[in-house]
Design a protein that fits this description.
Blueprint: H1 4-16, H2 19-29, H3 38-46, H4 56-76, H5 87-108
Helix pairs in contact: 1-5, 4-5
Length: about 110
Amino acid sequence: MFDQKKELKRILSNLSKNKEEQMEYLNWLFKGGLHNVDELLLEFENSQYLWNIYGKKVFKLLSIDLDEKLNKINESGLHDLNDLSHPIWNEVRITAKNVLNEIALVEETK
């Protein structure tokens, strides 16, 4: 059975990793044949149906804070692997970590 919570945490974990870890993940995923970050963006975009499983606060963090930062990446054309060092990507990492922390708090209270 597909574990929606686990999948959302996996996607957020990939977004929260540092540049080197993200590059390593993308190289592993595409056997070194990928030269952009689109898969990270697509994974997040495709996870929208999972955003409400942890309640309103997590949904707000995902749909407003993190989505806004990822939209800036798209608008700025920061899709190259070298762009992972751009300050907007650092904001994405911090926000993804904050969302993961909020998810951990929600899970603790259950």
